Recover the amino acids of this structure.
């Protein structure tokens, strides 16, 4: 573990226990993301990745533990409150508003800020020049890779301090996965902290600072990305070599 | 973006958008031209043209009947655009909608009639009614927090039925036994004798006045909704309709937006109810039941769910068709016009069209001659209505002077089979089969569907149903709706 820098982490989960009915899903999950970090949360199917994300976003309430954003306890706060505190998400499968234009999708990303200012659009168009060309096209008519750009642009519109990415490599061609992670690295370089939730350990660890490995609702590994990449068990389980 | 000359295509540079104009293929011919012209008119200009054209109607005619039909059409248009907020924008299947219309009407009746001796002027009653109806809408909207789709539809339909039951039995209500019982709604007899609409001392007492009142209300509501659709809230409604979870993840207050849509739609229905009841001068429970709900939904769906101008167009098409079909002569015109326009639009190239039309004329005279020679009574019938065109087709169409209705019944069944058969044959045989099928349709139309007044009443809805089926099959998204975009 690297030395803890001063100040509260941007996002902190402490001893989270989440239940779906009688089923104990997350068991004492603790993790944190500090300002400007790129952290990835790895795990196979049914490891609790999505539930962790839902807990962070406030879509499910944990039975025990605390969710803190920049030191403030938001465990009982609704989703919109957390978004306003600097969270944004690029959901799994993108979930764009298909019959609305690219521009309207971006506008809706900045809903809590009243629709976004010129500089917000400029920032998005600078990262994704293609979206400027496509701005009046309906989001549902774009190709999969372009839709991923809209989803990321939409998340950036709220000027997040921490961007959550749910399975960004899902359903994309290998070349697009690579391109996607280049973009993630680019957004990260612009000063946004990122938490990537992924099954694809190889690509995500190659750009991440740190990583957590989740297995059946528990964090089983937490280390620097380079050390995780070299970890014997992890290589066997996720990288297949 | 600077436009690039087309010859400088570079590898790896995407030019879909830059070359969009050259890649778009529109409709050819007169319909394509019309379509492009209509598309080019901006929405506010469309509204202005519609309002100007509608405002001319009372200038051009003082026929009370025409003005009443115009007034009803505007009322339907108001109802359709109000419903469009809930169903079209926010995507909430509200089947209780006309209860708000009834609520507005009853509220006006209670506030401005001899029923309680209250005679509020409109500038006092209408704001109260709109706000009260919106609050009722808000309360019903609470059900949309946990229910969506068909579940929400059932609960809201239950609300409509509850409204009808309460108004039908509301002539003897007491508040938990306190203060004795009172006649709130007049029961099954309703509340008669409503005050005319009086606003700032100006009493509206003519059909013409009510027409303008409804037109002003429709224009204001349409303008407000035009702005609302393009507002932050309007976009958020559409986001909630498309993907409530994604909307929530963007920080939108999904439940509050749903309530707002319900309240907005209900407020518009309440306003419409107060105007409509003032002209009718009475409110009765039966007027606010499922048949009205189905009519308004038909208008919205026909026009295109989600489209403001579509809702207005749907109201005009449905209500005016229903009125035109009341009269045998007008109905005949509509029938012939519909056949002709469909042939012109669908039969290509034009020599084929000429062949079909020529064949139709020849086939008719031949049939007429054969029947006249073998069964003289078969051509001696009198046309319903009996205007010039009705008499003119008598020498072309078989029209028995007796047992026409019975023959018409059999012919109707044969016609349905013939139409089904038409969909099964292909190529030249379809064109050949088209001629006797249309002739048979004309026969059924004259001898059965518009032959008697009772038949005409049923035919109106039959034709409306056929119109809806044909138009919706041709344009599933409605006349002015946009087709669904699905993410796959």
């Amino acid at each position: 573990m690297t030395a803890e820098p001063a100040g509260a982490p941007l996002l902190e989960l402490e001893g989270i226990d989440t239940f779906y009915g009688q089923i104990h899903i997350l068991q004492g999950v603790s993790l944190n993301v500090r300002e400007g970090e790129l952290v990835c949360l790895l795990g196979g199917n049914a490891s609790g990745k999505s539930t962790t994300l839902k807990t962070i976003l406030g879509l499910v309430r944990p039975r025990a533990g605390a969710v803190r954003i920049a030191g403030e306890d938001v465990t009982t706060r609704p989703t919109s409150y957390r978004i306003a505190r600097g969270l944004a998400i690029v959901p799994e499968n993108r979930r764009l508003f298909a019959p609305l234009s690219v521009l309207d999708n971006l506008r809706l990303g900045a809903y809590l800020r009243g629709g976004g200012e010129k500089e917000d659009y400029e920032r998005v168009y600078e990262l994704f020049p293609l979206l400027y060309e496509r701005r009046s096209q309906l989001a549902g008519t774009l190709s999969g890779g372009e839709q991923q750009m809209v989803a990321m642009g939409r998340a950036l519109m709220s000027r997040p301090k921490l961007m959550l990415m749910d399975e960004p490599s899902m359903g994309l061609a290998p070349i697009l996965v690579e391109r996607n992670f280049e973009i993630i690295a680019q957004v990260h370089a612009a000063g946004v902290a990122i938490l990537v939730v992924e099954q694809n350990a190889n690509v995500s660890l190659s750009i991440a600072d740190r990583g957590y490995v989740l297995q059946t609702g528990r964090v089983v590994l937490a280390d620097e990305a380079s050390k995780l990449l070299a970890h014997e068990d992890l290589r066997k389980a996720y990288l297949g070599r | 973006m600077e436009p690039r000359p087309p010859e400088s295509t570079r590898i790896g540079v995407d030019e879909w958008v830059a070359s969009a104009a050259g890649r778009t293929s529109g409709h050819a011919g007169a319909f394509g031209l019309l379509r492009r012209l209509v598309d080019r008119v901006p929405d506010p200009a469309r509204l202005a043209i519609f309002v100007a054209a509608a405002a001319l109607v009372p200038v051009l005619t003082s026929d009370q009947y025409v003005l009443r039909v115009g007034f009803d059409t505007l009322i339907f248009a108001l109802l359709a655009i109000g419903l469009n907020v809930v169903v079209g924008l926010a995507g909430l299947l509200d089947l209780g909608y006309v209860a708000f219309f009834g609520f507005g009407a009853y509220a006006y009746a209670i506030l401005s009639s001899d029923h309680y001796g209250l005679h509020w002027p409109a500038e006092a009653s209408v704001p109260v009614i709109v706000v009260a109806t919106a609050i009722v809408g808000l309360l019903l909207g609470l059900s949309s927090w946990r229910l969506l789709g068909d579940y929400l539809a059932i609960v809201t339909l239950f609300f409509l039925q509850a409204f009808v039951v309460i108004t039908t039995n509301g002539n003897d209500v007491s508040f938990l036994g306190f203060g004795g019982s009172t006649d709130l709604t007049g029961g099954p007899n309703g509340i008669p004798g409503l005050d005319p609409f009086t606003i700032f001392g100006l009493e509206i007492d003519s059909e013409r006045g009510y027409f303008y009142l409804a037109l002003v209300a429709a224009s204001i509501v349409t303008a407000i909704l035009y702005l609302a659709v393009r507002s932050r809230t309007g976009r958020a409604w559409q986001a909630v309709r498309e993907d409530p979870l994604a909307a929530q993840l963007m920080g939108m207050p999904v439940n509050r937006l749903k309530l707002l849509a319900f309240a907005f739609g209900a407020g518009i229905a309440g306003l419409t109810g107060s105007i409509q009841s003032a002209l009718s001068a009475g409110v009765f429970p039966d007027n606010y039941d499922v048949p009205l709900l189905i009519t308004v939904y038909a208008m919205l769906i026909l026009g295109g769910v989600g489209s403001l101008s579509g809702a207005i167009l749907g109201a005009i098409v449905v209500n005016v068709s229903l009125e035109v079909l009341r009269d045998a002569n007008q109905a005949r015109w509509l029938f012939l016009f519909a056949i002709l326009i469909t042939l012109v639009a669908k039969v290509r190239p034009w020599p084929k069209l000429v062949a079909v039309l020529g064949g139709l004329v020849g086939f008719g005279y031949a049939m007429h001659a054969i029947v006249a020679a073998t069964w003289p009574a078969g051509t001696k019938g009198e046309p319903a209505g009996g205007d010039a065109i009705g008499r003119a087709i008598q020498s072309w169409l078989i029209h028995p002077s007796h047992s026409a209705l019975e023959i018409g019944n059999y012919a109707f069944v044969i016609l349905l089979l013939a139409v089904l058969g038409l969909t099964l044959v292909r190529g030249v045989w379809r064109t050949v089969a088209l001629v006797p099928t249309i002739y048979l349709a004309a026969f059924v139309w004259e001898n059965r569907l518009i032959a008697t007044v009772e038949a005409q009443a049923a035919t109106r809805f039959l034709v409306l149903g056929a119109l809806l089926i044909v138009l919706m099959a041709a344009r599933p998204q409605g006349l002015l709706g946009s087709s669904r975009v699905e993410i796959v």
Observations:
- Chain A has a mean pLDDT of 89.
- The CA atoms of residues 210 and 225 of chain A lie 5 Å apart.
- The interface with chain B takes residues 57, 59, 79-80, 83-84, 89, 91, 93-100, 104, 107-109, 111-112, 114-115, 130, 132-134, 137-141, 147, 154, 158 of chain A (CB under 8 Å).
